[in-house]
Structure formats: C-alpha cells, structure tokens
Amino acid sequence: MRTIATRLSDDGRWWWNGDRWIATSDVALPQLPITEFERSGALDRSRRRMKQHKVMSDLVTVESAIASSSPLLLIGLAVALPFFVLERRAFRDYRAWTLQQLTIATELVLGPDAPMMAGETAMYRRSGLATRDLAVAVTAEYVIVFRIDSLDGQPRWIALAARCADVKLESRNMRFGTQPSLVITRGGQNWVIRGYPRVFEPGRVLDVWGSSALAR
To answer: Which residue among 30, 143, 158, 202 has the highest number of C-beta atoms inside a 10 angstrom radius?
Structure first.
C-alpha cells in the first residue's frame, strides 16, 4: 500500500509528502481500502442494526414522554431495555470497524514502519443521533487525532499530530448526564473522545501513550 506521507515535522504541524511540506491540518486522506470488517459482511449487519436502533430510538422517545407523566413508567422501561441492548451491540460493531480504519489511516500518514499500537473512537448519541466524529491512534512515537467525516464514513482529516511526550491524555469516567471520555490536551487545546458505557475502552491507549511518553 502506498503511503501518502513519509514523515511529520518534530512538532507534528507539518507533513512531508515526498515533495514538499504541507500543513498537517490541510491533509485529507483518500478513500481508505476496504477493511476486513467490511469484506466479511459485518458492516452491512451493523448498518442494519443501526437502522433498527434509529427506529427503536424514536419509539423509546415517545414511550418515555408518555411514561414520565403516567403510571406507565415500568412499561416505558420495558420498551427501552431492548433499545439499549441493540444500541450497545451496534456501537461495538462500529467501534471494531473504526479500529481497523485507524490502522490503515495511521499507516497512510506515518508509513508502515510506525504502526498503530492502540486506538479508540468516539461512539455516542448526540441529540438522539448516533455519532462517530473523532478517533485517536497511538504509535510508539506519535498521538494522532483523526476527524471522521460521518457515521458511515472514515477518518478523513488530522485534527492533531504530536509526539507522545508533547501531549497529555486523561480518562474521565461517566458522570450523571455525561459519557465516559478520553481528553487529549496539547497546549491550551483539548480534543474529547466521547464513548459509550461498556463499549468505550481507552485503557490500552493510555498504557501505550504512557509508555511512549516516558521513553522519550
């Protein structure tokens, strides 16, 4: 697979395309090769689950509105439970797909000699809609935050590329009204990878980043 980049500048703000330096923020990844997740048909099944999730989400919204003002609360909860089970399965599927995409995207940016060692993606609901907008990949040297173009799209742009020692990663547990998250900080800027309970697994990312940062 041909890489679109051979290296990054020391501060990660510039990307060498083999001919000239380009601002990392201006890099747009081409269409990624098909992943094994897609090739196996798993993505098609996941998309069907996501469509079912949307239908059930609308139903739960209606049932919750009725139950909140009547003795039908238990009925509303009974309707909501299958929704949350389906949602978790769909989100897990999309997470697995994203990790395969991140592996490919990282190789495109850094080349085959700097593989992704850990990754995580945002996967949460925003305004009732399933959302997958940011993802992070960690190598032995770099932390790269990708912006994803859509729920069914791919990592398309680089929001951050920096050496592990130059950034801080912090895991935040779920609190009332918030999702579990991974906060990536460089200077005065933050990138928040929002997850979903029992789907989000930032531990490996933190471990690799910590080891890489200490080694520098």
So the answer is: 143
